[in-house]
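(Deposited chain)
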Amino acid sequence: MSATTQATTSAESTTARPKRGRLYFVDNLRVFVILATVIHHAANPYAGDRTWFYKHPADQIERLISPLQLLTPSYSMAILLIFSGYLLAGSFERRSFGQYLWQKFLHLGIPLMIGFFIYIPLLQYWYHYNYRPGGHISFWNYYWHIWHGIGGKPDNWDWPGWPDRHLAHLWYIEHLLVYSILYGLWRYFFHPAPVRIDPTARVPGHRAIVGFAVFIALATWATRVVYPMNHVEALFGFLQVEVARYPIWLPYFFLGLIVYRRQWLTRLPSRIGRPWLAVGVGLAVFEYIYAQSGWWGGWGMFTAEADGGSLAPAALAQSLFKATWESFFCAGMVVGLIVLFREMCNSQGPLAKVLSENAYAVHIFHTGVLVILQELIAPLPWTVMSKFLFVVVAGGILSVLVSHYVIRRIPGATRVF
């Protein structure tokens, strides 16, 4: 996903004159949020996530790591989705309809098929074999009867969902593929003319950003009254959706389409971005301190127990608190990081170029690297924090090396990854 479009270099730190070029800050910020995702997944078992492919002992959970788990998904997926909407619009403009669909099949469809039919089943089989009672069966037995559900559900099956198949973290790629197809069809049949770029359109100010965050907070709160966190639905039977997070994430994709038309990525003033970065960082610090405290609700104010099902006033207030915090934290980080990276990280050296080229493959395949490392160090008498930090550093480096020297060396792989 390249970032070639109308770019600007800031002459006065607020607005800029357009010129043709590559938006290196978009590539660099994508690398940042994908590496943040690697850290998030490295922390999963040590923060108490019982659905991760490696299961750490429940009595050895590191309380200092747990609050970090809420931070990364909120803003990282929003940034990836706003960039996806932005780049999707430009991709359609540069290709015929057939070329556009073929490019999306290569870039999204092939990784999705590899993940669903090969990669995720291998990881889930590892979990099934090691952590489920009666899980010691052959891979092919698991693959056909448990993963695909051929032959019916076993009488003793008491795990959520049947069959066992899912997309894990690749749900994002599935969503992008569906959004890409729908956008392409809409443009082809209803809006075939080129999109009109308006680089003079009004840039959102503080009031607009606050209104956007309030709207998302209320929509999220209303949704979570019915759907708790971590509740996954198969929309239309195939689209993997965590409903409770959808009101936060989906608007950012549509916002990306608007950002492309109005070129806000390169025009958002520093006087807007810097205060919102302070809001995001401040709310992150607040969440971490609050979670460690014994104040009203403590860490429970930010956990799944704050959402879903109850109409009791205390539960509704707790859910509204969390939805509001998450919405404003997300808005602050999205706006602030875009401006920060545009001002300070809008170029690439050799290392940044390698990381940018490998970011997509790292996003897909880092989970396997992390699980292997987590299993290897499980018997070692290290502290939980030491294991977490080791997996973060070694897992991040090895994921890039596997992508660069293995995955992308496969003939034709660079067209996909």
Residues 97-131 form the longest helix (35 residues).
